[in-house]
């Protein structure tokens, strides 16, 4: 499978969330041959969308000369688009959001009703793509935290999407937390194996991965003791 990872953490390979993403990819590699490319979005020259809509009328060409042309080509060559990012203000970090805004050339201005909402008609063939979001956050609670990012991801990529959300993710970068992070990463690896085999992850496994690693109050008191 050709996998394009867009790492939305400005911390690049020092990202807490990339520990989770790397474990997932390890699992996928154990289940089969994978061709993986990781783009650290922060290192690419990606201008903001200007909202001119010309790309939606002219068959898909954006007038901006930057790295987005190459990113779009890579997306279209992939089987799986994996967004790995820390939760920033209940959404994705701005550099990654800039990339997501710039996928507009893949759609035309024409709209069509899909279920009970409207979506744009594609002007490129991305029908073979699956979409995976792996996000982590600094609070111990997932409720009242991840919902906007998950909902945005599902609306952006309405088919073949999977969302993994892991609270307490700064622990992945803390060596002293290994007794709890290592078993969690093993579960993530298993999820990667399952996903590679069937593009689904067992519900109970998903629930275990997305739950806090240590009780919320304990996590909060550890964080508070260091401030
Ligand atoms: C600007 C900013 C906004 C953040 N917003 C949230 C948030 O809304 N909810 C949350 O739980 N954590 C929030 N965090 C914490 C990060 O999600 C957390 O530190 C994460 O582990 C960083 O992952 P990374 O190392 O992969 O970049 C925020 C951090 C920053 C810097």
Structural class: alpha/beta
Q: What count of domains describes the coordinates?
A: 1
What is the name of the CATH class? Alpha Beta
CATH superfamily: Flavodoxin domain
CATH topology: Rossmann fold
Number of strands: 7
N- to C-terminal separation? Answer: 44 Å
Oligomer description:
single chain
Bound molecules: flavin mononucleotide
Mean pLDDT level: 97
Name the CATH architecture.
Answer: 3-Layer(aba) Sandwich
Radius of gyration from CA coordinates? 18 Å
Tell me, briefly, the overall form: globular
Strand and helix order: EHEHHEHEEEHEHHH
Q: What share of residues is helical?
A: 25-40%
Give the spatial strand order of the biggest sheet: 2-1-3-6-7
The biggest sheet, with number of strands, parallel, antiparallel or mixed sense and barrel status, is: 5 strands, parallel
Describe the model:
With 227 residues, this protein is α/β, with parallel strands linked by helices. It has one domain (2-225): Rossmann fold. It has helices at residues 16-31, 54-57, 68-77, 94-101, 147-156, 178-198, 203-209, 216-225, and strands at 2-7, 35-40, 80-86, 107-114, 117-122, 130-136, 161-166. The chain has a five-stranded parallel β-sheet with strand order 2-1-3-6-7, with helices on both faces. It has a two-stranded antiparallel ribbon with strand order 4-5. A hairpin with a 2-residue loop joins β4 (107-114) and β5 (117-122). The chain is globular and about 55 Å long. The model has no long low-confidence stretch (mean pLDDT 97). The structure holds flavin mononucleotide (FMN). Flavin mononucleotide is lined by residues 9, 11, 15-17, 86-90, 136-139, 145, 169-170.
């Amino acid at each position: 499978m050709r996998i394009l990872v867009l790492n939305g953490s400005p911390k690049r390979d020092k990202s807490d969330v990339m520990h989770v993403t790397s474990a997932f990819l390890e699992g996928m590699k154990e289940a089969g041959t994978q061709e993986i490319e990781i783009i650290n979005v922060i290192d690419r020259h990606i201008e903001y969308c200007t909202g001119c809509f010309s790309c939606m009328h002219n068959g898909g060409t954006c007038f901006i000369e930057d790295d987005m042309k190459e990113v779009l080509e890579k997306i279209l060559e992939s089987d799986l688009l994996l967004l790995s990012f820390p939760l920033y203000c209940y959404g994705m970090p701005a550099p990654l959001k800039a990339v997501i805004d710039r996928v507009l050339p893949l759609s035309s201005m024409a709209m069509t009703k899909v279920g009970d909402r409207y979506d744009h008609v594609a002007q490129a063939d991305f029908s073979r793509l699956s979409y995976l979001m792996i996000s982590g956050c600094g609070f111990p609670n997932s409720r009242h935290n991840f919902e906007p990012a998950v909902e945005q991801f599902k609306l952006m990529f309405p088919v073949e999407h999977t969302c993994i959300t892991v609270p307490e993710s700064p622990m992945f970068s803390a060596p002293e937390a290994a007794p709890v992070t290592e078993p969690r990463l093993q579960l993530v690896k298993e999820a990667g194996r399952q996903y590679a085999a069937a593009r689904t992850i067992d519900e109970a496994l998903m629930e275990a991965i997305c739950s806090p690693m240590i009780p919320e109050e304990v996590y909060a008191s550890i964080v508070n003791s260091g401030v």
